[in-house]
Amino acid sequence: MPTEKILEEVEWIKAHQHLVGVDGKLDYLIYNGRLKGGKALIGKMMQICPLIHFNKEGEVATLQTVRTAKKALRASCEKIKELIGDRSPEDYLLWHVYTGRSLIDELIELEKEYGITCNHEDVIMSPVSGCHNGPWLAGYCLVFIRKEGEI
Length: 151
Known about the structure:
This protein is of the alpha+beta class.
């Protein structure tokens, strides 16, 4: 396969991949200075859990803020269902990503209610993700498989 074709496929995959996850606790976002002052205090008191995703620039950003980890996990299931739409499992790869076991077991239980089935093995995220989010990050990675002629 020519290098140009490989690069074209990589760019297509980058444009059609999704990470949807939950930061179950704000502790590490506070420790590393990403969340400060009043926002940190109120966020912890109200049990705010950000629902995160990759934005168009490829950065991890907040998609939605939700109160309590369980509601945030539900929101992640709803978002994945929305992204998948009516596609067949042969048209995508879906797997769990997490930095610690704290939320992933609960996510696996919840996804049964939504009819979500992962078709790839789970991935423990990098130590860098663990430093930023601690052991409370859990979610999904979704990559669509390019069909013949799809742009």
